[in-house]
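Changelog note: in this version the structure field was regenerated for every chain. One regenerated record is shown below for reference.
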Amino acid sequence: MVFKILFFIFLLTPQAFSQGFDLTNKNDGKEIEITAEDSIEWQQNEKVVIANGKAKAVRGNVTLNADILKAFYDVNENNKNDIYMVNGDGNIVIKNLNETAYGNSIVYDIKQGVMILNGKPAKTITKGNTLTANIFEYWQNKKMAVARENAKVVKDDGKTVTAKTMTAHFKEGRDKNLEVQYIDAFDDVVFTGESEKIYAKRARYNLETMIIRLEGDIKIERNKNILTGAYATVNMKTGISKLYSKGKEKVKGVFIPEYKDNKKQENKQKVED
């Protein structure tokens, strides 16, 4: 029961991380379409297109909305314009078929396959999870997503995991779609459930081995009971959880017994004079 929270949070945490909003040139050769409600300015000398007022960039199943979008391009060997970077400011919303992200500004380096979304905080919503952080990074070529500065995952049932930084590493599945390989959480890691909290410096969930490892000043609080140790593991296949000592850092426990009041309540009768 000590690690009950981990079974609930980590089972769904992989879905909290976006598998990428792909605007790169690898997206079936489709062009990026730029539109706006107010105006579109084409600066040919600077090779930039500026869309103002509910601006939108669309490629395939990915849509990027902003107050202002700037699309930078080069002319290729076929004399066609290739957009290599899109910057956006104000009311950023980027979405695909499975997830939606919100922020204040965005820089999308299409050539390098890198997207940086900033907010106070920025937010990504997937099925059953909401992930917030001040900075989101999506590295398409490295198959990695990063949530920096006050990262927090909130499940629909209210359970949470927080850390200064969280990273998700992906791999190609059998259908060539990206799937989470492992997730890392760094610095001030806290898991919070209905009646327990778990503290650690670092945590990794390996989805291939289905093993969670927590390291650094482990502290588990459940009601008034406290367990501490050097590191802990949770095997999601077997359901076995272990708390370990390391060197001088021993496993310790403080257990507070619960007392029940067995005294019978006295019935008070109202006496009339």
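Spot check on this record: The domain at 22-95 is CATH 2.60.450.10 (lipopolysaccharide transport protein A fold). Residues 1-12, 262-273 have pLDDT under 50 and may be disordered.
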